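Work package 3, deliverable 3.1, input record:
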Amino acid sequence: MESKMAIDTRGIYYRDLNERIRETVRNGTTEVELLNVSGQRYIGTALAGDLEITINGVAGQDTAAFMCGPKMRINGNAQDGLANTMDKGEVYCTGMSGDVLGYAMRGGQVHVLGDVGYRAGIHMKAYKDKLPTIVIGGRAGDFLGEYMAGGIIILLGLFGAESSAPIAGRCLGTGIHGGTIFVRGQIPEYQLADNLLVQEADAEDLKLIEGFVDNFCREFGKDKSEIMDSSFLRIRPRLLRPYGNMYVPN
Amino acid sequence: MQMPSADYDFQKDISGCGLFGVINRHKNRFSGRMAIDAIAVQRERGNGMGGGFAAYGIYPEMADKYALHLMCDNKHALDRAEEIIKRHFEIYLSEAIPVRKIPAVGESPVLWRFFVLPREDRPCWTDISENDYVVRVVMEVNKSAAGAYIFSSGKNMGAFKGVGFPEDIGEFFRLDEYEGYIWTAHNRFPTNTPGWWGGAHPFTILDWSIVHNGEISSYGINKRYLCQHNYECTLMTDTEVVAYLLDMFIRKHGMSKDMAAKVFAPPFWEEIDRMDREEKEAFTALRMVYGSGMLNGPFAVLFADAHGLVGLNDRIKLRPLIVAEKGDQVYMASEDCSIRNACPDPEHLWAPKAGEPVIAEVFS
């Protein structure tokens, strides 16, 4: 078996395609390139190990769900649920992504060059050395980091579609109780609810951000100095149990 | 029974409805093939319990007549409906809706169409407008002709729908043989209401049509509100209310499409608080007067009339919607890949913001 394989996915039903990818990997292929992808779902789901997967076209719902290790590049847009509960590895998407990006993500990195939809980073969580990270080159929709429990979201607001929309939408960090959201530049005051502790990112934060931005720039061919030539806001939850008193007052 | 070739055809799948719509803003007409193929890409979003299409510009030789599409349990039900129709309308053409029998679409109701105009000597409702009169007769048939439903009643447009996957319903109704300048398509995954022929999308009244992905939790209040305005819901699916609300808000109350969208998905009070005085007053009034017309729950909808196509999400974006543009065509769909099936290289493609309608009108 060759270590590289290309599959023309045109007209292949998603289950058959995913079965074929898994079989290819079982047989020792470590680099899989998919051509003409048209919304087939669950590509790369739970694939583990040191693999490279390239998707050319539109990646369907829940691409890279539960993925544990591979490096995936999506040349195009991703639909909803990219990196759902992803565990380990890297995803680079050169287009925009749909809603619930990185839902309950628990490890690895996801980089999206353009805009992302609503509820990016919802329920993300970190544990010991697992630090899931989402880097967003464009803008984010409402509910960024909703119920976030851990991990890092870095929002750049630089490479999205032309728009008058603010860098992040309504209800930023609603119910957040762990993790950190970094925003390049400023955010309108009214978007920052009382549950958020908003501070200027310090030198240590910037070093952390820079590490992820390095990857972003390497994969997308962007200039790091331009991205880092700005202040960043650091947004964290004020309380670790924001709803502790909701039903049973203490 | 025939074993399906793949075992997953037997398994339960979790999904949501799928939408596709396209408009040529110069009113250049094209075959339904594009909509059939584009909705087929979203097959996973449905479960074979409903598919349908609305098409505008398909009856140019009968453009001035109301095209009534009927589905009836049997010939007797059709007779009962025809009796009511004859009493109120002059019938110019009466014929079976042409279908192509295919194995994927099971037993179908009796499908019939009448091209009509209101009689000069109306038997009743003599002092209301022609459009109101048509609405009344549609409601009358759907309510009192047992087993018969008028599921399309506009001019130079038509809805085609049934139980099956949309690509099969499209073949069944021979939609590749029709040409229209607006097409919408729906792939249904019924959750709360039965998967029956009448419950498939689109829902229509006059030349309004609507396809919907989601759930209208406010169905109860919307239905009671409509009932006070002589619109009666008979099709057992939440989406039906939207067709009648559109007719009431836009045709009868003179709202713009944008304003109707703001009734369906109004700004939050906290957003209204930040508006300048004039806007604040307008939106406050709109929410107060039309609160019963607000749609609660998750939705992405496409609605159309002879003049254009509109896409709208609920205000917290609980369902997907993508819009793209190329030349004089605008595309809207639940999934990016569906649009690219119809138009591989759009000039712009974006995900509209929650509650912000995308309105694509024909050039006047």
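The first strand of chain A starts at residue 4 and ends at 8.
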